[in-house]
Amino acid sequence: MLKKRSFIVLLVVLVFIFSACSANEAVNNNTAYDNQVENVNGSDETANDENSQEDDVDESAAEETAVEEDAPQPIEVVDGLGKTIVLDTAAMKVVSLAPSNTEILYAIGAGEQVIARDDFSNFPAEALDLPAVGGSWGNLSTEAILALEPDLILANMLYSVETIESLEALGLVVYTVPNPLDFDDLFVNMFDVAKLVGKTEEATQVIEELQARVDAVVVIVAVVAEPSPVVFYELDATDPNAPYSAGSDTYVDTIITMAGGTNMAAAIGSSWVQISVEEIIAQDPDMILLGDSMFGITIESVIERPGWDVLTAIQNGQIFPFNDDLVSSSGPRMVEGLEEMAKVFFPNHFE
């Protein structure tokens, strides 16, 4: 009986010890799990902090890039003298020193930015309301120009290098527009000027419209079956025995050719040529265009010139006054000059 009771007591003790061990192991296991969870959570929080810092860095970099992209970039354009003109921002106060430049500025929508003009700018009509500061014959009023405080002076290749440098010496920014020899050159000039005055979008649209008009003339001229007329284009007949004309490498020559004519003076081999009556008679042009009609030269006065009555153009009544501004002023109206000249050459094919 005593042995049996001792056995029961021993069994109870063993059960108690086993239960205690199991409880301790469970506690230890739970503690280890909790530590793992804390470690994992801690790692996640650290990773999240690191990712957040990286996101902040990326956002900051993106913001800096956006600011750099939004910041105005300097405007750089190479002019007709090979100089690089740099402006921090688009010019808002422009002095135009050539009729062609004035036409370009108004055509691309920068008319309100023009604050003065040269003496010869007469188109568009509103340009005549601007103060004049002289012309290309050495009579520029530098005092008047300085008083206007312009951002930009637009000159052309008729001005001497010395004149340009004298303006620059006064602290003025001068861009010399190149002489165009064809419409591609003209359109480049227009776009470069547009860059300087912040009108590139407007210029692009205008250039596309002008190009379409040029293309329309070229297409019609290409299918005309009539022979190309030999044309004498008179620029200045101050001496009627040796009038001036436009030879090769001029935009007048380009327009005559594109309109379907043959420029008589191109064979002389010079840009602006004085031609004797004897040479004119020898060439015997089919047509005479009077670019100097705006200076009082009339059809009747040409007919009355001694020796000119033998010319085919006079005998056939093919003498026409022509608006020289449309072809001698190298602005957007050169396109109109092409259209008008094609009408003179081939009236049955153009309205």
Please characterize this protein's 3D structure.
Helix 6 (200-223) runs parallel beside helix 12. The chain has 2 domains: 75-211, Rossmann fold, CATH 3.40.50.1980; 228-345, Rossmann fold (3-Layer(aba) Sandwich), CATH 3.40.50. With 351 residues, the protein is an alpha/beta fold. It has helices spanning 2-70, 99-107, 142-148, 161-169, 183-197, 200-223, 251-258, 277-283, 299-303, 312-315, 325-328, 334-345; strands at residues 75-78, 84-87, 94-96, 114-116, 152-156, 174-177, 230-236, 244-246, 262-263, 272-274, 287-290, 319-321. Helix content is 49%, strand content 13%.
Q: Could you outline the blueprint of secondary structure elements for this entry?
A:
Elements: H1 2-70, E1 75-78, E2 84-87, E3 94-96, H2 99-107, E4 114-116, H3 142-148, E5 152-156, H4 161-169, E6 174-177, H5 183-197, H6 200-223, E7 230-236, E8 244-246, H7 251-258, E9 262-263, E10 272-274, H8 277-283, E11 287-290, H9 299-303, H10 312-315, E12 319-321, H11 325-328, H12 334-345
Helix pairs in contact: 5-6, 6-12
Question: What would you say about this model in short?
Answer:
The chain has 351 residues and is α/β, with parallel strands linked by helices.
Tag the structure with descriptive keywords.
single chain; 351 residues; alpha/beta; Rossmann fold; 2 domains; 6-stranded mixed beta sheet; 4-stranded parallel beta sheet; 12 helices; 49% helix; globular
